[in-house]
Amino acid sequence: MRIPFIKMHGLGNDFVVLDARENDLPDLNESIARGIADRHTGIGCDQLILLQPSDSADFRMRIYNHDGGEVGACGNATRAVAMLHGSNATIETDGGMLAASPRDGGASVDMGAPRFDWDAIPLAYPMDTLSMPVGWEMLQNPGAVNVGNPHVIFFVDDCDAVPLDRLGPEIENDPLFPVRVNVNVATIEDRSRIRLRVWERGAGLTKACGTGACATAVHAMRRRLVDSEVTVALPGGDLQIAWSEGETIRMTGPASESFRGSFEWDDYA
Ligand SMILES: N[C@@H](CCC[C@H](N)C(=O)O)C(=O)O
């Protein structure tokens, strides 16, 4: 069976989008998603995105990481599919209901309300049973934020100096995190600008992570390190994040379509 796909990206965080809103697809599983995402033998992407009909929203978005695992949220993909949809949309995800508005060259998304602190992300054991503060070498005292997916955030003097390719997988796979975790290292440049690098769960170092930008910005806002609207500068470019206590997060930034193609489902099934 020949399946059409759309290759998209948000600040270089790239996606294969399968659109099953009108035409059903065969069942997707972890192994098929991993095969399609493979950069050597598949189409190649950080995340595979599956669009389906929804009873409660304009459509449902399902998200599969590069390693095939299904997860609850992806900020950059939300902007990309909002552009694809072409008009204001409500989007059902496993991480919550989102509302997106396309605007020239990108989209603005209501990413929902964040949850904070250690009860916001799945842990193997309660944090207060630990006798030592949590940290990994130069990365100490993480904050925890859930924006539909779990993030830990470290503020450091220079995020570019952190060996995230080595510490990222160590923290992601630490037994403390039973469903693993996204790892953010951030530097506060001034009250309106944060520099950020992200080691993504199931995808590794990416050029940008929308949910990482939201989680890091709201954590910094809550600690009163920055104002309520900030630019988050990622290796792939900038995102604008706005939030106030008790409100939902607004993320605004670019997204693009790269190309379209088709593939043989049986090659991956
Ligand atoms: N690239 C994404 C996040 C994708 C999911 C994440 N790796 C997870 O496992 O939770 C974004 O732009 O938010």
Write a structural description.
It is a single chain. The protein has 269 residues and is of the alpha+beta class. The chain folds into two domains: 2-105, Diaminopimelate Epimerase, Chain A, domain 1 (Roll), CATH 3.10.310.10; 115-246, Diaminopimelate Epimerase, Chain A, domain 1 (Roll), CATH 3.10.310. The chain contains four helices and 20 strands. The chain has helices at residues 30-37, 75-85, 164-172, 210-222; strands spanning 2-10, 13-19, 47-52, 59-65, 70-71, 89-93, 96-103, 106-110, 115-116, 135-136, 139-140, 143-146, 150-155, 182-190, 193-200, 204-205, 229-234, 237-242, 250-254, 256-264. The strands form two sheets. The protein has an 18-stranded mixed β-sheet that branches. The chain has a two-stranded antiparallel ribbon with strand order 10-11. The chain is globular. The termini are close together. Ligand LBFN2T5F binds next to β4, α2 and α4.
Our count of helices gives 4
- Per the CATH scheme, the topology name of the largest domain is Diaminopimelate Epimerase, Chain A, domain 1
What is the H/E string?
EEHEEEHEEEEEEEEHEEEHEEEE
Number of domains: 2
Number of strands: 20
Any idea what the CATH superfamily of the largest domain is called? Diaminopimelate Epimerase, Chain A, domain 1
The CATH class designation of the largest domain is: Alpha Beta
Structural class: alpha+beta
Q: Bound small molecules, which ones? A: ligand LBFN2T5F
Low-confidence stretches: none
